[in-house]
Write a structure and sequence with these properties.
homodimer; 132 residues; mainly alpha; Arc Repressor Mutant, subunit A; DNA-binding
Chain lengths: 132, 132
DNA sequence: ATGCATAAGATGCGCAAGCAAATAATGCAG
DNA sequence: CTGCATTATTTGCTTGCGCATCTTATGCAT
């Protein structure tokens, strides 16, 4: 019994890997070619766009995009260098930082979003089931 | 309508990313710590174990593990260096290579498999639905 | 036979990821 | 106030990935 369950889990994991890798790969390529963004960078912009006042603390953002803190730190550095977001220090706790979308960031997100949605429609129709 | 569908797809994609990253991260850590294998290396050993005569062509293997051809080439180099697999040239088409499990590779897979299954059970119970 | 398009793998390159250690700011115990 | 554990973020290091390109092998057309 346990063996059968385990093998079913392994098979499901294998399918999950396949769906993820395929979509991620295409998203990275298309978003990169058309808008100069990686899929992770797009996710960050999206999280910020949806957040109150378009700003979030680093650690919250790291959770939201499923990235390690160090990876997020560097990703934010890149987006800041490109002028799409800003680090804003937090007066209440000087250890924390808020990350906020700039106007350029909002624009870039608005431009890139249709591309992302299109890829999800084209490549994800057979990969992404309806939400449970 | 299209907008709602697109947003649902985006939300589903976000969940897929989360499930994948979480599982992949834990698998890499545990398999690495306990058996010196990455999750991708484990997948390669598993594909070979399940294959006829425990050998597959590189390109077939690359598909099976959802990896680029170059990534697989290097992965195979590492596994070969560790003595877990062998490259065997194909007499019918000298461009092709077969990759085969060694005895050490079979043993390593047998050792690592319970770890992988345990992680899938512990971390994946809420991530991996039953197969459709 | 010769040439050329194609296929399978390997390799140079740059990039982004995770872990672990470093830095900096808090806050609490004495 | 001083020291120490804790929290938030950054940075050094190593590793693995994908893309583009190179090399070798096929095989078909002439």
């Amino acid at each position: 019994m346990s063996a059968r369950t385990d093998d079913a889990l392994a098979a499901e994991w294998h399918r999950l890997m396949g769906r993820y890798q395929r979509l991620m790969c295409v998203l990275d390529r298309e978003l990169g070619a058309e808008h100069g963004l990686s899929a992770s960078e797009f996710e960050v912009l999206q999280q910020l766009e949806q957040a109150e006042e378009c700003s979030l603390r680093m650690s919250v953002l790291a959770d939201g995009v499923h990235l390690s803190q160090s990876a997020l730190s560097r990703l934010v550095t890149r987006l800041e260098r490109d002028g799409l977001i800003e680090r804003k220090s937090c007066s209440q706790d000087r250890r924390s930082l808020f990350v906020a979308l700039t106007d350029a960031g909002r624009t870039r997100y608005a431009d890139a979003r249709p591309t992302q949605r299109r890829v999800l429609r084209e490549e994800g129709s057979d990969c992404l089931e309806q939400p449970a």
